[in-house]
Specification:
With 537 residues, this protein is α/β, with parallel strands linked by helices. The chain is 43% helix and 14% strand. The strands form six sheets. Strands 4-3-9-10 form a four-stranded parallel beta sheet, with helices on both faces. The chain has a four-stranded antiparallel beta sheet with strand order 5-6-7-8, covered by helices on one side.
Length: 537
């Protein structure tokens, strides 16, 4: 089996990973600032470092890996949101309302994306004492000073400040990014502690009632839960400077070590349909909206589809988040599910939902991921198993199932609902689902295998469809559940398709037509410009 190799931003090279203590491999990842629901860009580090967490647990043992992902619940954006949304409440109560709601939603989103719970999820407000202690140490060692009601870190006191971002100190000139403030010794000096007014949240400290700066919280929480030095620190590319650079400065100067973390990993940026995501462009979308609403692509998407789509681009590369990408991910996962749906492996999984936890991922998958989380190679492994599994190779079916579970892109008890329609009746991916189910159902009919037919029916119903068997052995697919809701969904899609045709957006028109076909709906475009439909027989 290959050694684990990870790209280290600190050295700009891929290196063999050697933990400080193999009995306690330690990783810290910057989590959300809970002033609003997390957007899809926030999902990338959640998913990427969950895959690394799973891999480390496999390599070193699940009881020998500590994964910390913080929650920032003290921030001026939170204060502003609380004052805006709850103007009639005392500020602390309003802040609690905002942070509880958004933190709970974030954790629900992470679960829906197939992420394991981190070992620890500390909140900044529970670690104020630890922050104050580090700030006191920095002052005592000559790395921080008090000025104009603030405690500031003196970047000039650290000779190799800028080592992670490779930005020389003399490049930190005052201007657009660094405010000119007379009380600072250097324009790049950053806030460790600032005073709070009566209308702002605050904590007692040696420098008066105030609140921490942004960067100090991660130094405090990583030290509390992982120690003065640890193995891996992760986050988005946008955090390299100033956040991670300043974390390193605080921790190294406080504790006297050459490094804070041995390996620094950063995921690339995300854009949406070829453009930077922003509210002004109207392409801003949250994880919750993708999971629960038709805002993006005219339908909700399953968490496993979002996860697979996110991983399809290597984590260090920029990613273009698009409907086409999600359709590709959904189609591939649907292929995998169909290949193992009618198998001994699937039956074992239904009988014992924890069965896959007793099995190790394939060596081939582990080798692929050990090359700096090379998901392209991992997909090749999965496609190899799939090619054999669809020909009823039992070993390949088991390996495909176990490897998908290991990656978090398959939920054991819901094999039939793996497509983007999971949890949303009548919505599936744009591949022709009916044509894929027909062979398995017809084979069960031919063999008079009522048990297999029942299993297939139960799984198909999870996608919002059922089937009827005619006396001559033919199969008719029908919708299940709320017939009115199903018809409303069909009519809404037809209306959207007509609008696309009127705008000469033929690609969107074809996409909607394919989606309706996947739902088992055949369209007929009439000469008068209307469209009628019927259930495909």
């Amino acid at each position: 089996m290959s050694a684990l190799r990870l790209y280290n931003t600190l050295t700009r090279s891929k290196e063999d990973f050697v933990p400080i203590d193999a009995n306690n491999v330690r990783m810290y990842v910057c989590g959300p600032t809970v002033y609003d629901f997390a957007h899809i860009g926030n999902a990338r580090p959640i998913i990427v470092f969950d895959v690394l967490f799973r891999l480390l647990r496999h390599l070193y043992g699940k009881d020998h890996v500590t994964y910390v992902r913080n929650i920032t619940d003290v921030d001026d954006k939170i204060n502003a949101r609380a004052a805006r949304d709850f103007p009639g409440l005392p500020l602390n109560e309003a802040i609690a309302r905002v942070t509880e709601t958004t933190a709970n939603q974030f954790m629900a989103d992470a679960r829906a994306l197939g992420c394991l719970e981190p070992t620890e999820q500390p909140r900044a407000t529970d670690n104020i004492a630890q922050m104050i202690a580090i700030i006191e140490t920095l002052i005592a060692k000559g790395h921080a000073y008090v000025a104009d009601g603030e405690v500031l870190f003196e970047v000039g006191s650290m000779p190799d400040y800028g080592r992670l971002s490779r930005r020389a100190l003399d490049e930190q000139q005052a201007g657009a990014r660094v405010a000119v403030e007379a009380h600072k010794k250097n324009p790049a000096d950053f806030v460790l502690w600032k005073l709070s007014s009566e209308s702002e949240p605050g904590w007692d400290s040696p420098w008066g009632r105030g609140r921490p700066g942004w960067h100090i919280e991660c130094s405090a929480m990583s030290n509390r839960y992982l120690g003065e030095t640890f193995d891996i620190h992760g986050g988005g590319l946008d955090l390299i400077f100033p956040h991670h650079e300043n974390e390193i400065a605080q921790s190294r100067c406080a504790f006297g070590h050459d490094v804070m973390a041995n390996v620094w990993m950063h995921n690339g940026f995300l854009q949406v349909e070829g453009e930077k995501m922003s509210k002004s462009l109207g392409n801003f979308v949250t994880i919750h909206e993708l999971l629960a609403t038709p805002k993006f692509g005219a339908r909700p998407w399953a968490g496993h589809v979002l996860r697979h789509a996110m991983l399809m681009t290597h984590y260090r590369q920029p990613i273009d988040w698009s409907v086409a990408r999600l359709n590709e991910a959904a189609s591939e996962l649907n292929d995998f599910a169909i290949a193992i749906l009618d198998s001994e492996t699937a039956n074992k999984a239904r009988e014992n939902p924890n069965w896959e936890k007793e099995l190790a991922p394939s060596d081939q998958l582990v080798d692929a991921l050990s090359d700096d989380l090379n998901y392209a190679s991992a997909r090749s492994v999965l496609r190899g198993w799939y090619d054999k599994a669809k020909r009823m190779d039992k070993s390949a079916q088991r390996l495909l199932y176990v490897d998908c579970c290991f990656l978090g892109i398959l939920e054991p008890r819901k094999l039939g609902a793996l497509t983007q329609g999971f949890g949303h009746r009548g919505v599936t991916d744009t591949s022709n689902l009916i044509d894929k189910w027909n062979p398995a159902i017809r084979a069960a009919i031919a063999n008079a295998d009522s048990n297999r037919l029942n299993i297939l029916r139960r799984d198909l119903q999870l996608t919002g469809r059922d089937f009827e068997v005619a006396t001559e052995g033919g199969v008719t697919f029908i919708p299940v559940g709320d017939e009115t809701g199903y018809e409303e969904r069909v009519e809404a899609l037809i209306t959207a398709r007509l609008a696309a045709r009127a705008a000469k957006n033929w690609a969107e028109s074809d996409r909607i037509r394919d989606e309706l076909l996947a739902m088992g709906i055949a369209l007929k475009d009439n000469k008068d410009g209307t469209t009628t439909w019927e259930v495909k027989r």
